[in-house]
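Review session, final week

We close the course with one last complete record, chosen because it touches almost every idea we covered. It is Non-heme bromoperoxidase BpoC, a protein from Gordonia insulae with 265 residues. Go through it on your own first, then we will talk.
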Amino acid sequence: MTTGERVDGGVYVEVGGRRVWHFQGGDPSGAPTVLLHGAFGSASSWGTQIADFTGAGLSVFLPERSGHGHSPDHDGPFSYADMVDETIAYLETAVRAPAHLVGWSDGAVIALLVALQRPDLVNRTVLVTNYLNPSGQDADEFFHLIGTRDPGTVEFLRSGYVAVSPDGPEHFDVVYDKTLAMLEREPDYDLDRFAGVAAPTLVVAADRGVIRLEHVLALSRILPRGRLAVLPGTHILPVESPELFNPLVISFLAADPPSHWTPTV
C-alpha cells in the first residue's frame, strides 16, 4: 500500500503523513465536491449519489478517513479535531481548490467545522442528518444497538470493514472501541459557535431518525446563510430516497457560480 497505488477504483494519497484512499470522478473542470461519510462508513456509502452528481457536471471526491474503508487506521483515539485536521489536509493536498462539502452524520459535523475554521477551502456546504450536541440527538434503535454492542449489529459492521480494510479483520474491534469512545463524548458544540460560518449551507433532515427537528431548525437559523430541508426518511436518507435527496443537493450546489474557483497550488 503506497502513495499512488490504485485499489478498487480509487487511489492512495498522502495526507498529513497518513495514507488516505479516495475516489475521484466526474468532469475535472466541474465544481469540486467532496462527500464525507459517517462513522463506520466509507466511500461506498455514497453509491446512490455518484452517478447523479457526476452526471450533473460535478467533480466528485470521495475520501475514506483513517480507520474507515480502505484507509489504514492511525495511532491514538478518534476525535472531531483530528478528523477536521485530516480533512483540511486532504482538501489542501488532493482537491487544491475551494470545494463544496457534503457531509453525512459525523461527516456533516466535520464539514461544518472545516467551513468555520477554513472558509477559504469551502464553497457551499450540505449537512445531512447530523446533531452537534447531545440535546440534538433523538432515540434511535440502530444507534442504541451500536452502543450496547448488539452481536448482530457488530457483525454487520464488521463484515463491511473486513471486506476492504488493509489493517486486517482483527483490527475491527479497535476501530469499534475508538468510535464508541468518541461518540460517548462528542460532538458537543454550542450552536452559537457556528454563527460565523460564511458558506451557504443546506441542512437536510429526515423526519424520522436520530436528530431532533428542533435542533436542526435552530442550527439553520443560526447559520448566516443557512437553509433547511426536511425530507421523509430516516438517518440513512441518501440511500433510502436518492430520488428526493440528489436533485435537492444538486440544485443547491448549482446555485453558486464557479467564477471564483481558483486552484490553491
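Two points worth writing down before the exam:
Strands lie at 6-7, 10-15, 18-26, 32-36, 59-64, 99-104, 122-128, 201-206, 226-231.
The longest helix spans residues 80-95.
Good luck, everyone.
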